[in-house]
């Protein structure tokens, strides 16, 4: 949170309508995402109850476990789910485009597209991760054989949930998080976790303001929870008798109808949220981040057949590398968003890490002749009312065109003087249009677009003894395949 | 302290004080700045009933599936004199537990009187402290002083004695998957266990022994992975203990708050109830909704008067402690001249307003 987003919340509370906290969309939205709303049985770690899912809003599929404590029914559910998820993955990947060969001459590919999954909330991600954990070690042969799709589903779900932790990744998005990235409501972030209430503030039905729509959304009878937890009253009064009736008669229709009633309103909300997000113009760096997602997807997809299930716990090297990757991605994501969106850059201006104003003077043709050869070093005086918290000598760049670099040479009562050092062409006169002119509105910032470079980590085989030495190879064990799921 | 008791009885309107359990006591630590909650808890007011009377029932239902699962798991761990539990303590944690004895303190000769049960707990624990007799004491009934009055603790825990030291064993039905569990659930369990450790320590001290004979390390017993098999994890609850102790010490000072209230104030049902509740100041934060039955009433109140706290603690902090939304917006617009101590906040808000307008341009 920041003062800027808090102010947006105040405005939302005062006007009764959510307020924008972004001017562009900061996440990728696929043409045909797989929308999934999973429900789990209360009190259990990962007992699926139902999932409503599909790529087409007019035709959701509904998978149900009519007796969630029955292991065979669970695996049948997992197999059905696997079919839809794997189909989605194959249908979304596009063609493999060849890239320039890597440093050691190996062939490199990237799929032109990648599958996207949309969930209502982070709870759903946790549930999919657990479902992935409970299915990825299963064996397709031997005494505890399951359908081939089940362990494959487990590995894919684990991978998707993993990518969700990756800042800026859009492979697995939750709609509440995506909406909150773009709007501030007049309620607390805790209450924003309720998708229906959040949507009530952003897009209230006719005749209601945000507060009234959110209040209505808190009634679980009007707006059933978006999962994965179900409403306890629904469990006790509707679901339990329906499951009992299945146990007695073997007909699952009653359970299906009950769960469909719980899921359908959220299904509708999910697609309305997609519409709202789609209506926003896409940020300039979104395509670049999606390309990283496609890289990750391509690698996992092409190595899937030779691969083994992801380990229960990361090995030392893998954990260190993963943390490093996350830090780099976070760093790049924050900078990219600021450069893409003046409203995010405004946060940095408020913190004093950026400043904006009108070019009020300077010397656009200035040459530095102190060295052997003269260098083009224009000076710009930027009149700013922002609270600048940068020192002289700090390297800065132009927010609108990060290629234009410079450093702060003076901070005075009239504004900040920046000496431009690069991004103006190779001559002693600046390339046309490269130096802002008198009266232009500019923003300069100390943020840098490129993140810090990747670090090197030892191979798995050379894991140092301080970190436990090389970890053992994965060997599928019967114990994994037969692990209880109760 | 004792002279507050009649005042507190009056606040309840003559109703018997509500029983505390470790959950409600642990919840006392959640919002220490709230006078309303402090007074109501110290008096043992049935907040759930009050909230219902006020038209804001607390939606804390529990699914029967979760209840069943919890009960089945607990029964399984405790079956045959806690056979599974002992195996766990021996094999998983490598403790050398000699021949074990199991004492269930839930009922005393068919009577469930709390005094008798507490007396039996005292007797058995005293003997254990002196002679080392007994291993597992299920459902010990403990006492703790809350707001100047002793309350019995509804126990759902086992005291485990090993070599003259007691450990609290708490059975929970959330899963530990590959050595990890949901952090919020572990935190809640640790807070509750800390209350038991504290109550047990007070009892040991009353019996004339060193309270340090109750270990700060408790054992959480949870299902492992996706199975019903239990696993035990030691948890150090020292941080939670410190918080609970500080909060309880603070609660005894509710007499100061009570003394400042109208002399005839009562939370008994009736037309005057909303007014009585409003007479004691609340400090609502969205986190209250997780632990306090009054939360929905307080939220409504906070929203009605445009309190910034209703938007979240971080929002209030960002606003430098400005309590009212209207005032914060007036400062942001520059239509209100700030008092000296708010000058910095006001300047920041005005800059934020200008930057938002500039960035939103035509949009806004």
Structure explained in plain terms:
The complex is a heterodimer of chains A (486) and B (364). By secondary structure, chain A is of the alpha+beta class. Chain A is 40% helix and 16% strand. Chain A is built from 14 helices and 17 strands. In chain A, strands 10-13-16-15-14-17 form a 6-stranded antiparallel β-barrel. A 5-stranded mixed beta sheet of chain A has the order 4-3-2-7-8, sandwiched between helices. Chain A has a two-stranded antiparallel ribbon with strand order 1-9. In chain A, α9 (232-249) crosses α10 (253-278). Chain B has helices at residues 4-11, 22-27, 35-43, 47-53, 64-92, 114-131, 183-206, 238-251, 254-259, 273-279, 295-304, 313-318, 325-333, 343-360; strands at residues 20-21, 102-104, 136-138, 142-146, 149-154, 158-162, 165-171, 217-223, 230-236. In chain B, the strands form 2 sheets. In chain B, strands 2-3-6-7-8-9 form a 6-stranded mixed beta sheet, sandwiched between helices. In chain B, strands 1-5-4 form a 3-stranded mixed beta sheet. In chain B, α1 (4-11) crosses α3, α7 (183-206) crosses α8 (238-251) and α13 (325-333) crosses α14 (343-360). At the A-B interface, α1, α3, α6, α9 and α13 of A face α5, α12, α13 and α14 of B.
Structural class determined from secondary elements of chain A: alpha+beta
Number of domains of chain A: 2
Number of strands of chain A: 17
Run of helices and strands of chain B: HEHHHHEHEEEEEHEEHHHHHHH
Radius of gyration based on Cα positions of chain B? 24 Å
Quaternary structure of the protein = heterodimer
Low-confidence stretches of chain A at least 5 residues in length (pLDDT < 50)?
Answer: none
Overall strand count of chain B = 9
* Rg measurement of chain A, Å: 27 Å
Quickly count the helices of chain B: 14
Number of helices of chain A: 14
Strand content of chain A: 15-25%
Could you list the spans of chain B in which at least 5 consecutive residues all have pLDDT below 50?
none
CATH architecture group name of the largest domain in chain B: Alpha-Beta Complex
Protein name (chain B): Secreted protein
Organism (chain B): Actinomadura macrotermitis
């Amino acid at each position: 949170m920041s003062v800027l987003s808090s102010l947006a919340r105040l405005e939302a509370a005062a006007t009764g309508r959510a307020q924008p906290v972004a001017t562009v969309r900061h996440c990728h939205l696929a043409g045909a995402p797989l929308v999934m709303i999973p429900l789990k049985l209360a009190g259990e770690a990962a007992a699926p109850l139902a999932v409503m899912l599909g790529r087409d809003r007019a035709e959701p599929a509904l998978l149900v476990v009519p007796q969630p404590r029955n292991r065979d029914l669970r695996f049948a559910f997992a197999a059905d789910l696997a079919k839809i998820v794997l189909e989605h993955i194959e249908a979304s990947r596009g063609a493999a485009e060849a890239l320039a060969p890597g440093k050691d001459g190996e062939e490199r590919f990237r799929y032109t597209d990648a599958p996207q999954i949309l969930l209502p909330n982070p709870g759903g991600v946790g549930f999919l991760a657990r479902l992935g954990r409970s299915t990825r070690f299963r064996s397709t042969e031997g005494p505890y054989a399951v359908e081939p799709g089940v362990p494959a589903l487990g590995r894919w779900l684990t991978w998707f949930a993993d990518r969700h932790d990756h800042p800026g990744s859009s492979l697995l998005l939750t709609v509440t998080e995506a909406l909150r990235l773009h709007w501030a409501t007049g309620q607390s972030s805790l209450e924003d976790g309720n998708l229906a209430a959040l949507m009530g503030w952003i897009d209230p039905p006719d005749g209601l303001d945000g507060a009234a729509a959110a209040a209505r959304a808190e009634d679980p009878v009007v707006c059933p929870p978006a999962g994965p937890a179900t409403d306890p009253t629904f469990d006790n009064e509707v679901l339990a008798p329906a499951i009992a009736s299945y146990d007695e008669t073997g007909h699952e229709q009653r359970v299906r109808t009950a769960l469909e009633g719980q899921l359908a309103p959220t299904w509708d909300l999910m697609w309305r949220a997609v519409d709202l997000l789609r209506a926003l113009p896409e940020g300039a760096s979104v395509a670049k981040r999606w390309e990283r997602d496609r890289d990750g997807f391509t690698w996992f997809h092409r190595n899937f057949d030779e691969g083994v299930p992801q380990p229960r716990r990361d090995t030392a090297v893998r954990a260190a590398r993963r943390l490093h990757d996350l830090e780099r991605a976070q760093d790049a994501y924050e900078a990219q968003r600021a450069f893409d969106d003046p409203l995010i850059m405004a946060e940095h201006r408020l913190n004093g890490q950026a400043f904006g104003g009108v070019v009020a003077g300077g010397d656009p043709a200035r040459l530095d002749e102190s060295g052997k050869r003269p260098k083009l070093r224009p000076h710009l005086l930027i009149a700013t009312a922002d609270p600048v918290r940068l020192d002289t000598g700090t390297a800065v760049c132009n927010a609108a065109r990060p290629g234009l670099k410079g450093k702060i040479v003076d901070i005075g009562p009239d504004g900040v003087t920046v000496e431009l050092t690069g991004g103006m062409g190779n001559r002693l006169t600046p390339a046309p249009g490269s130096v802002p002119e008198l009266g232009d509105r500019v923003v300069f910032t100390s943020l840098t677009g490129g993140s810090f470079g990747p670090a090197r980590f030892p191979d798995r085989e050379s894991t140092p003894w301080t970190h436990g030495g090389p970890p053992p190879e994965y060997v599928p064990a019967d114990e994994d395949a037969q692990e209880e799921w109760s | 302290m004792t002279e507050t008791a009649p005042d507190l009885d009056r606040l309840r309107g003559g109703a018997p004080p509500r029983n505390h359990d470790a959950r409600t006591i642990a919840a006392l630590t959640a919002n220490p700045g709230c006078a309303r909650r402090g007074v109501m808890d110290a008096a043992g007011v049935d907040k759930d009933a009050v909230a219902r009377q006020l038209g804001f029932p607390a939606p804390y239902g529990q699914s029967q599936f979760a209840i069943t699962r919890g009960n089945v798991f607990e029964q399984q761990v405790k079956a045959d004199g806690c056979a599974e539990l002992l195996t766990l303590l021996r094999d998983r944690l490598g403790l050398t537990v000699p021949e074990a004895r199991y004492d269930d303190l839930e009922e005393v000769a068919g009577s469930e009187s709390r005094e008798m049960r507490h007396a039996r707990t005292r007797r058995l624990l005293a003997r254990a402290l002196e002679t080392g007799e007994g291993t597992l004491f299920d459902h010990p009934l403990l006492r703790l002083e809350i707001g100047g009055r002793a309350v019995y603790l509804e126990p759902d825990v086992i005291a485990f004695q090993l070599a003259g030291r007691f450990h609290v064993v708490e059975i929970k039905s959330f899963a530990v998957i590959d050595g990890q569990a949901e952090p919020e659930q572990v935190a809640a369990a640790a807070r509750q266990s800390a209350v038991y450790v504290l109550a047990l320590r007070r009892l040991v001290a009353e019996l004339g022994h060193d309270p340090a004979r109750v270990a700060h390390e408790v054992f959480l017993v949870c299902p492992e992975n996706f199975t019903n098999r239990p696993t035990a994890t030691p948890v150090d609850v020292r941080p939670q203990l410190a918080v609970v102790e500080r909060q309880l010490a603070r609660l005894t000072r509710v007499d100061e708050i009570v003394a400042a209230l109208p002399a005839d104030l009562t939370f008994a049902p009736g037309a005057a109830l909303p007014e009585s509740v409003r007479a004691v100041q609340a400090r609502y934060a969205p986190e209250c909704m997780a632990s306090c039955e009054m939360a929905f009433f307080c939220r409504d109140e906070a929203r009605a008067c445009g309190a910034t706290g209703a938007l979240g603690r971080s929002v209030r902090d960002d606003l430098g402690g400005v309590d009212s939304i209207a005032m914060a917006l007036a400062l942001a617009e520059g239509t209100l001249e700030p008092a000296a101590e708010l000058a910095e906040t006001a300047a920041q808000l005005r800059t934020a307003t200008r930057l938002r307008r500039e960035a939103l341009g035509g949009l806004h």
